[in-house]
Amino acid sequence: MRAPAGLLATLAAAIMLGGCASISTPGPPSPTHAVTGNPSVGVTAKSVVIGGTGRPTPSSTRDQVSSWWYGGGQGQANWISSDLGNIDGFVKPTVAGSDCTSLSTDVSRAQSYAPIPDAQAQHHWSAALDKYRQAATDCKAGVATTNATLMIKANAEILAGTSELNAATARIVRLINGG
To answer: CB burial class (10 A; 0-12, 13-18, 19+) of residue 146?
Structure first.
């Protein structure tokens, strides 16, 4: 059964606005030291691993995670968070559809990015991206067909993904802060 378009838009807006209001991606603090000169001075082949950015990174988990985060991981999370904040546009289905497409694109980019060099953080990150991928799919389909059930499902997936993203970023913050 299809809901009237006005009712559908109102219901979806209320659900999405309520769900997105609490989205946050706490970021680790800025690095405590500036890299000057040649960052690989004093680094030996035994003490580095090549990270997803192609730059040598020190071999400690703390340093590897910090390099992942500041080398592009934080940007991946920020793009997705921005998309999620924009998806409150279900009041205007054409806007919501493009926001859902942006989320899908940014999730694909994040899934192609290097994994987090910590199993626990990577587990949460991967789970968040999986939930957001499904949310984007359901969001696009819900907007295209004015299907309230798909839009409600997308909202639940966004909330589940946000819980996983918060767990991943909390772990990243702990690791970078030496915890």
So the answer is: middle
- Measure Cα distances from 142 to 1, 96, 132, 168 in Å: 13, 10, 15, 28
Both tokens of residue 19?
């769900």
pLDDT class for 16, splitting at 50, 70, 90?
A: very low
Q: Which residues contact 175 (CB under 8 A, 6 or more apart)?
A: 61, 62, 65, 66, 118, 121
pLDDT number for residue 162:
95
Question: Around 110, how many Cα atoms within 13 Å sit in the side-chain half-sphere?
Answer: 29
In the three-class reduction of DSSP (H, G, I as helix; E, B as strand; rest coil), residue 58 is classed as strand
Rounded to whole angstroms, the Cα distance separating 106 from 116 reads: 17
Torsion sign (Cα): 89, 95, 100, 104: negative
**Span 10-30, average pLDDT:** 38
pLDDT tens profile 60-73: 999 999 999 999 99
- Report domain extents, the chain: 72-179
* 3-class SS of residue 56: strand
